[in-house]
Amino acid sequence: MVPQTSLLMRSIVLFISFIALSLFPASEAALKKYQFDVVVKNVSRLCHAKPIVTVNGKFPGPTVYVTEGDNVIINVTNNVQYNMSIHWHGLKQFRNGWADGPAYITQCPIQSGQSYAYNFTVTGQRGTLWWHAHILWLRATVYGAIVIMPKNGIFPFPQPYKEAKLVLGEWWNGDVEEAVKKGNKLGLPPATSDAHTINGKPGPLFPCSKKHTYALEVESGQTYLLRIINAALNDELFFTIAGHNMTVVEIDAVYVKPFTTNTLIITPGQTTNVLVTADRSPGRYFIGARAFMDAPIAVDNKTAMAILQYKGVLNTTIPITPKLPASNDTELVTNYNKKLRSLNTAEFPANVPLTVDRKLFYTIGLGQNACPTCLNRTKLTASLNNISFVMPKIGLLQAHYYNIKGVFTTDFPDRPPKAFNYTGVPLTANLRTNVGTRLSRVAFNSTVELVLQDTNLLSVESHPFHLHGFNFFVVGSGVGNFDKTKDPAKFNLVDPPERNTIAVPTGGWAAIRFRADNPGVWFMHCHLELHTMWGLKMAFVVENGKGLNESVISPPADLPRC
């Protein structure tokens, strides 16, 4: 029999422990370390074998699993002939642009035989993001998922039975970098991809691809969380599962008001989390992904397929085929995007800037510049406010931090040089663009409203724009020319979607707002790799603040050198 005094002492100890844990809760933050070895691996798809650049020999690359609040160190060792850098897409990297990753923007690339440790803390974010190479077109094969679990492990929606990642991509039978070089010599786009892929596999509609089909096994009656990432280089994609509805619960690692749909639209750079319940007759159901394009632009129009397979069903069962939208179904895309709303609860508020310190208006355009050695003696270009961005020879963040002169200017214009009917008839004359490494300086903690306006210079087209270092709120969008007197009255300032990548509608505009509370140099660019290469990019220099923790931290000792 236990003495009463022992029971009393044990009770006192338990009570004191409870009080201590309440006042000083144990930190759930941890140090997570990963080793990324960039290596070449021979891979076969569509009856074609070729060497590709990979991380750790995997295609797609390894998933980075972390918990909100974790400190993460990912050591990247470059063992291939190309220079390399890795971008952790969607991570805000507060005060720590050194870990952001875009080559010649926040760092010099990691040269062959060298290493660099990306060291960052995941602060105030949870959900699905991704990582990818941010130099040349190497992200064609160098990419993978980032899964950030909430601190308490609880989602603001029904807990799923299990979860899975579906990373959408593109495959070229030939060497992608060689195709790009050939296109640049001609002044034209390189050949489009030969297939879309789901988790690196094109599916059974392609030759030699029966074994290259991703299958997701599910149990009847259970609900699954699917983390879907568009890692394609140049194509916005429809995504659907035959016979099954999806409940959208998150975009770009931000919770949204749940809604049900049978088709997703997801642009390069974006992520979407959905809940799917295995509530159909046990069988095999195709999962389909194919391009959306509502402009006269060439894309890879082939459909990738994976399989949703109920447990116990034979592999010989013929899968049910989904009904995918027409490739130019603008109405579906518009209606889908209208349904996206931030969750906006006390725990997950939508802190939309209600007042604006700085208003920006950027036109998106294609163009043609002189090229004596190219076909037709011209080359295609792309620009913001008629400026095609020229990449520097050293990292812009280093130049800013060390005040190195002559690397960039801070005179990027707040609006285009000339107003015109942006989305009228196609404009095919006077297509020359200005060139330069011109940045826009932004005051610390100021609020910014940016309207991105598509134009009909050569052709209208949807453009997915990604802003590094921040999330932003998509307060409005529309077709045609933005009307500064009428359109702001329609802005959603209550629960607009919050994300890091936004598709500017074909022949239309999108308005975003963000607070510039992250000092450093932050890249903004079209996430169509073709347009980025042609100059459709710029960067913001966000000044340091005056308070504690309002300045760019010191660079790490192993920061790569150019």
Automatic annotation (TrEMBL):
GO terms for biological process: lignin catabolic process. Residues 40-152, 166-312, 411-545 form the Plastocyanin-like domain. SUPFAM superfamilies: Cupredoxins. It is an enzyme of class 1 (oxidoreductase). Binds 4 Cu cations per monomer. It catalyses: 4 hydroquinone + O2 = 4 benzosemiquinone + 2 H2O. Keywords: Apoplast, Copper, Lignin degradation, Metal-binding, Oxidoreductase, Repeat, Secreted, Signal. Its EC number is 1.10.3.2. This is Laccase. It comes from Acorus calamus (Sweet flag).
